[in-house]
Amino acid sequence: MVKLIAVGDNVVDCYLDKELYFPGGNCVNVAVNAKRAGAEEVSYIGIFGNDDKAEHIQYALAEEKVDYAKSRYAIGKSGQPQVSITEQGDRIFVGGPKDTVQHRFKINVTIEELNFIKDFDVCHVSVYSSMESELPKLSKVIPIAYDFSSRTELAYVKELAPYLTYAFFSAADLSPAELDEFIEALKALSIKVVGVTRGDRPALFIHDGKVYEQVLRPIQVVDTMGAGDSLIAGFLVSHLSGQPIEQAIVDGTLSAEKTCQIEGGFGYPKLLKL
């Protein structure tokens, strides 16, 4: 039985070419995909705006059996990053409004919430959630999984490392030499497991000083949005259920493959009014 809670960001990803938007955000994606990967109980705590996009995110969470009852509500618009498509077919973020509740407010975790959170097996947080100040008190009651995304500055990583049990990075922009140096620096930290994705190359995982390489299978890719988040979710659920690191990587990969074969972070398209 695995119980995961995600605390932090929620957005809708706006696909300009299709005039559709999809519920998402790192923490929401991880929560939903953890439930799909077999976690028995999944909760999410975030800040919702009061617009139709926030309502759609909540609808999707309810459909996926992810509890969000302890979330906050604010007057304002939801985060809505805009996504365009390149000539090569890759989706890229091209901006979005900056006056959203995601930008204007942050979560301060209360004692009552800490008492609720401590009953889970892991708390997932992302770099997009502005939760750095909350990590010390969270880490006292629960193991933390943190997604750094592309923030690989060692000063920032070392500042947060003492509070983390799991850490995940996107290192596609690092050169081979920079990546080797980064991996060696990560090995020296106290983080139990580190995952490093590299774009379309196999991800690397570090556990007990040993580096494991993901095995990729050829699949028909529809959309890579949220694939890294579902890799994290599948890995965590498998690892926390007692599977060895090798199997947890396989299970995380299977979770990511499923995400790559649908549009959006986990589906639920809705018409975008431009």
From TrEMBL:
Pfam families (UniProt xref): PfkB
Keywords (A to Z) from UniProt: Kinase, Transferase
Domain Carbohydrate kinase PfkB: 20-264
InterPro entries: Carboh/pur_kinase_PfkB_CS, PfkB_dom, Ribokinase-like
Molecular function, one GO term: kinase activity
Domain of life according to the entry: Bacteria
Coiled-coil region(s): none
PANTHER family: 1-PHOSPHOFRUCTOKINASE-RELATED, ATP-DEPENDENT 6-PHOSPHOFRUCTOKINASE ISOZYME 2
Entry protein name: Fructosamine kinase FrlD
Protein source organism: Lysinibacillus piscis
